[in-house]
Structure formats: structure tokens, C-alpha cells
Amino acid sequence: MTDSNFSVDSTASSPGPDPAGGKIVLSGMRPTGRLHWGNYTGALENWFALQEEYRCYFMAADWHVLTTALERADEIAQNTRDMILDWLGAGLDPERSVLFVQSRIKEHAELFLLLSMCISMGRLERNPTFKEQVKDLDLKGEISFGHLGYPVLQAADILVYRAHAVPVGEDQLPHIELTREMVRRFNHHFGEVFPEPEALVTRFARFPGTDGKRMSKSLGNTIEIAASPEEIKQKLMPAFTDPARKRRSDPGDPEVCAIYTWYKKFMPEAADETAYECRTAARGCVDCKKKLLAGVVEHFAPLRERRQQYVDDPKLVDEIVETGCQRARDAAVATMDAVRAAMNLG
Ligand code: TRP
Questions:
Q1: Which ligand 1 atom minimizes the distance to the CA of 26?
Q2: 289-305, pLDDT tens digit by residue?
Q3: b vs e for 13-25, b when ≥16 Cβ sit within 10 Å of the residue's Cβ?
Q4: Tell me: the pLDDT tens digits for 179-223?
Q5: Mutate to test the pocket of ligand 1, among 39, 62, 65, 154 (most ligand atoms within 8 A of CB)
Q6: Which residues pair with 27 in a beta bridge?
Q7: What span, in angstroms and rounded, lies between the C-alpha atoms of 202 and 85?
Q8: What pLDDT score was predicted for residue 121?
Q9: Which CATH superfamily is domain 217-303 in?
Q10: What spacing in Å lies between the alpha carbon of 132 and ligand 1's midpoint?
Q11: Domain covering 24-207+314-343 assigned CATH 3.40.50.620 in the classification
């Protein structure tokens, strides 16, 4: 890491040279806390790679947190900060990509309002993500108007940058489809203002947490990407392995073991040998975990180091966010001028 990676021109409000002929990517994450290995494999690595090819906008979707967690509003600012530190640690490059915070760009709210006229209530009520959340969160009778409108806000996030592509997990596909429907409706009435965005589905096998179930904050089975070696050890050593392998001398089945999946992800060069030694009981689980621990600590060391450099320079982080928001705002303001002109508004 050279010093130049840590400078950012806070006066620059327009993004730098355009890769991929101006194709625009936008994605967002809700700031709900520190990012974990599942977020890393599922999204962050993909975002990192997309920076090579696209003009990328990466957004902390803080308003979206409020749709389901109004009572936790006071945590959002800190969570946003932590998440952006994780992004920077993981190598998102604030020179190339626009890193910004949703609530600081008021144009999202204006477009949200206008798009809310382009979709029916019934369509939003049939949104499978919404139906599932209502079931999971046991919200019956307590559903906010904003929660129902979640996909409309998400559409505004995407369209206010006239994004062509949206990297998301499979669970978000219904929202992208809704966005495309709103685009068609809008463009039909007011002319070709928005491109119809495509989802770039992040294909990743379900990534296991410490209990072998899908890694997810709500299940309490996560390991954070910025965890210290000691914290990783505390969570990794008791983690889920093949439950049928009771004694050290029993052969194991790596395919059902979280540790083996983590090997494949973080120490791929050692994965085949690990599977073989597990199946033949040549290696015990404790040794297997110790070896993985060393590999994982090494894998995340550069990320942790880079993150720490940003932690130590809070003014730089403020500047990065400020510059990102300014770049985002410039683009959003231009879109809204076009939208108002197309709609014959003020
Ligand atoms: N709904 C997304 C999620 O929960 C977060 C998000 C908000 C988003 N706005 C977006 C993702 C715009 C892609 C594009 O993961």
C-alpha cells in the first residue's frame, strides 16, 4: 500500500475517467453493523472486482434501515461509519468509485415520491420479499407505509444515477424487477429518461456461519471481516464440523463441514489435502481448525491493516464520504433536472 492510496482530492466533484464506456453500476447495503465473512464473499469481493469495469456508485442505505428498525435509529450513524471503514479496508477505491450515504442525497426522496405514482399498491403488497419479512418479523398490523414502499426507494436509488447494472444477491431480484416495471411505466408516459437496469446476480454458494447455517447477523453465527486474530480464534475453534465425526479416529465428511467451506474460500490451495485427510481421519478437527485459523488470519491481515489506517485518520474518512456524496449529488441533480423537464414540472 503506497501513500497515494490514502489521498483523495476533496475538490473533485466529477468522477474520473470512465471505464467501460460509461456503464454505471449502483449497489447498496443497509448499515446494520460490521460486515462479516458472508457479506464479504457475497457482495464486497464482487463490488471490488466491478470497479475495474464500471463507474461504480456504492451506497450506505441508511434510510432503508428505518423501514424495519425505527427504534434503532440512533445506531445508524455509527454503523454507517463502521461499514464504510470495512469497505475501504476491503479495497473499495474512493478515487475510482463513488462511496456515499443515501440520506445525504435528498434527490432520492424526490424521485421516490415521483416513482410512487408509477406502481400500484397491489403490486407492492405482492412483493415476495415484503411478504416474507412481514412473516419473519411478525409485523402484522405494524407495517409502515415506508416499509411497503421499500422497493420504490430502492428503485429511486438505482434510477437517480441512471444505473445500467445492479449487483445484488438473489433475494433482491424481485426489487430489481419492480424497478424495471417502474422504469417502463415512467418511460411510457414521459419518454426515455431511464435505462432499464439489469441485475448482476452475485453467484455464491450459501456461505456457512459458525453453526453451519447460512451466515447471517440475525442468527448470531458471524465472524467479522475486521475481527482480530484472537476474536477469530474464539469463534472458529468451537465452530460447526461434521456432527457424525464423534471421535478423532472416525472418518469425516468435509462436504457437510463449515470449516471445509471456509478452507475452499480462504485457503483454496490447502482444500484438497484437507478433504482427503478428513475422509481418512488422518487429521483431527482441532488441528484442522488451527491450520485454517492461521490461513484466515493471514488472508484478512491486509484488510485489517488497511482498515486500521483509515480508523487512524478520521478526517480522511470524512473527506472521502464528503467527496463521494458530492459526486453522487452532482449526478442525482442532473437526473432530477431531466426528470422534471420530462414531466413538465417546475
Ligand atoms: N435492499 C438492499 C439489501 O437489503 C439494499 C439496497 C438499498 C440496495 N438500495 C439499493 C441494493 C439499491 C441495490 C441497489 O440488500
A1: 14
A2: 999 999 999 999 999 99
A3: eebeeeeeeebbb
A4: 999 999 999 999 999 999 999 998 766 899 999 999 999 899 999
A5: 154
A6: 58
A7: 22
A8: 96
A9: Tyrosyl-Transfer RNA Synthetase (1.10.240.10)
A10: 16
A11: yes
